Amino acid sequence: MATAPCVSPQEALYQESLNAINSQQARVAVIGLGYVGLPLVHLFWKSGFPVLGFDCDDRKVEKLNQGESYIKHIPSEIVAEMLDNDRFQATTDAAELRDVQAVVICVPTPLTEHKEPDMSYVIGTAQQIRDHLQPGQLVVLESTTYPGTLRDVVKPILEETGMKAGVDFFLAYSPEREDPGNPTHTAAFIPKVVGGLEPKSHELALALYSPLVPQVVSVSSPEVAEACKILENTYRCVNIALVNELKMLFDRMDIDVWEVIRAASTKPFGFQAFYPGPGLGGHCIPIDPFYLSWVARGHDFHTRFIELAGEVNTRMPEYVVQRVLLALNAQGKSARGSKVGILGMAYKKDVDDARESPSFELLKKLQGLGAEVSYNDPHIPRLGRTRHHDFELESQPLTPEWLQSLDCVLIATDHSAYDWKLVARHAPLIVDTRNAIRETGLSHVWKA
Longest C-alpha distance within the chain, in Å? Predict the structure, then answer.
């Protein structure tokens, strides 16, 4: 009589996890409920998974459990809908991570003051997971970071439990690809790159993401997946630095860089348009290339090209401020005592995200020169404390009276909600970093 093949306990753990994920019965925890984590929660929920949202910010958790959102592109109606069928809840209690089959990490990866990776959020989160790690759980890191983070940072922390990655629990990396404010390329329609620590982890992660997106891109290792995200953002950083540098050059040559870009964009091959601005913002592009430069030094390699791009983009706010000073000077005014209004504190148009926004640097530099600075942003009603800034300001109504009261309007973010004809008509002086005022022949409009 034939006997059933013997299955090891570890193989049974893997099969149990795989069956739970494939049947979408696996409960998924998303750690970090910000601009990446909350949309991912919704995506898992929409795909049929029960979801636990974890964040250390009790204000966020309280809002979510009351059916309220704090992120523009995830309306409160969606949060309320997720709560209705009991497949979603938010918590600050890390002990609840014991009761899930998969954990996805979406925490910040900022820079230190010395432009080096600040891994404190990733390390702290890994330690929280370690304290509650259960056999058979899949842990996926989505936070953007340098190649080797999953293997060299996260894995050793989780293995402090005595369990072994790829045997007792499973590890993978899948970079987030959120583009806030982009209605076309939302998370549900963007291919997902996945790299597992070893074959079992890889298969579990592929199974986890396959119901969520139209295409899962399988790569050979977590390091390839980590490097993929760094390449994507470094590519953008370098090309933005190129057009920023050309903008400064073409200004001296009295050439409109925006017209040059429009002309070059008519070429149907070999050219992709990138646009200049007052500096880089957001959580990825101003930061990720420095992660790559940092890890390169550990391999005795100097990334001169990448670091140069970072330097060009970092000095753009100073260039913009100099343009403001020149514009005021042409009116017989100095920065000290002048009233300057900044249009747009968000780092890009039509979002409520001000992380790493160059507008903060513009505000700080102008205040340092003695200017009286106010701002308007329809998506950011007030400014408060951040990691690097502490401004207590409220958005001013965009009225003819406010515009006329200013000595200079500085356009930092070109939100679609702005009435540019109103701005051009009532602002006595405009410094435009986004080519928002396209009407020609306006002597009071300076490009920057």
Answer: 101
Q: Which amino acid is at 110?
A: P
Separation of alpha carbons 190 and 184, rounded Å: 10
- Domain 227-314 is in which class? mainly alpha
E-assigned strand segments in 219-325: none
Q: Is the pTM of this model over 0.70?
A: yes
Count of CB atoms situated within 10 Å of the CB of 153:
17
Distance between CA atoms of 258 and 260, rounded to whole angstroms? Answer: 5
Are 9-220 and 316-448 in the same CATH fold?
yes
Instruction: Say yes or no: domain 9-220 is CATH 3.40.50.720.
Output: yes
Question: Domain residues of the chain, as ranges?
Answer: 9-220, 227-314, 316-448
Tokens of 7: 């299955």
CA 243 – CA 236 distance, rounded (Å): 11
Q: Which residue has the tokens 């001169």?
A: 304
Q: Is 419 exposed, middle or buried (0-12, 13-18, 19+ CB in 10 A)?
A: exposed
Q: How far is CA 2 from the centre of its chain?
A: 57
Q: 348: which 2 tokens?
A: 């890009």
- Catalytic annotation, residues: 284
For residue 319, give the nearest of 376, 389, 244 by alpha carbon.
244
- How far apart, in whole angstroms, are the C-alpha atoms of residue 283 and residue 154? 21
Overall CATH class of domain 316-448: alpha beta
How do the pLDDT tens digits run along the chain, 448 residues long?
555 567 788 898 999 999 999 999 999 999 999 999 999 999 999 999 999 999 999 999 999 999 999 998 899 999 999 999 889 999 999 999 999 999 999 999 998 888 889 999 999 999 999 999 999 999 999 999 999 999 999 999 999 999 999 999 999 999 998 776 676 667 788 999 999 999 999 999 999 999 999 999 999 999 999 999 999 999 999 999 999 999 999 999 999 999 999 999 999 999 999 999 999 887 677 788 888 889 999 999 999 999 899 899 999 999 999 999 999 999 999 999 999 999 999 999 999 988 889 999 999 999 999 999 999 999 999 997 766 667 889 999 999 999 999 999 999 999 999 999 999 999 999 999 999 998 878 999 999 9
Structure tokens at 55: 């964040």
